[in-house]
Amino acid sequence: MATDVTVPTLGESITEATLGKWLKKPGDPVKADEPVASLETDKVAVEVPSPVAGTMGEQVVSEGATVLVGAVIARIDSNGAAKPAAGAVNPPGPGETPAARGDEHAPTEEPHEPLTLSPAVRRLVLELGVDPSQIKGTGKDGRLTKDDVLAAAKQSPAPEAKAPAPAPAAAPAPPAAQIQVTGERHEERVQMTRLRQTVAKRLKEAQNTAAMLTTFNDVDMSAVIEARARYKDLFEKKHGIKLGFMGFFVKAACLAARDIPAVNASIQGEEIVYHHYVDVSIAVSAPNGLVVPVIRNADALSFADIEKTIADFGRRARDGTLTLEDMKGGTFTISNGGIFGSMLSTPIINPPQSAVLGMHRIEERPVVKDGQIVARPMMYLALSYDHRLIDGREAVTFLVRMKEAIEDPTRLLIDL
Length: 416
Hints:
By secondary structure, the chain is of the alpha+beta class. The chain contains nine helices and 19 strands.
């Protein structure tokens, strides 16, 4: 008895997905609730479990196909006999021909008796370039004679004599400075994943819809680096998680958003929606692309809760276990290109949000402090924002508030 494997409900407003990979092959044993396929939705990869224990049977769709919610994608044979995939043809057994086996599309073989030519006739056939199988023989038992071959040669046009090809000229020696290209040039075409298609669509939509502008500032990371060095061991011992940089920036962004609420707002139609909470979307690198899970109520969380949430997102992004609920919503985004070595960038807004903060790498640069040129660990900050909602003055003020909080982390504790 075969049981259908169907596409599960994927989340609100998601009606289709792409079958990314089969995790079981026909004939493989399958346990109940064991994943048999991986689906790619607009945001995450979702595994499809087997509803029963048995043997993997027919795979109804192929990898890369678009499937609707509720559609049958495979069948599980609970009796243990796997069905061959659609269109599969069983190979013939030893000594068995396809025709003898009764295959519908087996090639038919017609008996063919080779022509028997005398040495003189064979020589003449080669000289005149005629096809002996197209000539009717008049000799004994229908054999070809020299007269048959000569008559056939007169009826067909004689082939044009080909002039001997000239010997190739010796190639000139290349100049000493000429570059020799060796090897082959390869190209590969790969279908875009559904996640990459969605990312491309949303980013282009953001460029077409929002009046995007980016403003920059730099921040001295000395105080944050000193605080981490002083308290990281105690922090890890107490909370079981390392104290990172992101916690400081999340807290600083929440503090700055209280002064500049437009950065945490969004445009819906002809209305501006001001959010009295801060849900921070954190850009995380996953095997299939960039995903953006959300830290809910980040403004009310402690440093430890923020760092634990970020670490959990990173682990689940690598494992491919983030859910749609993890990435739903978000009122403001932080992207840290610095972990990949980026010095400066202009991040793109994540609609319907109105602003995104770009962090970058920390490097020592000469700056002037108290009239002296000194080396300080500096980071560039970039704020891309929708100019329809956020004025330049507000964007600059937001970055200044963040700069002040990062350069004096005590502000984060006393809410200044």
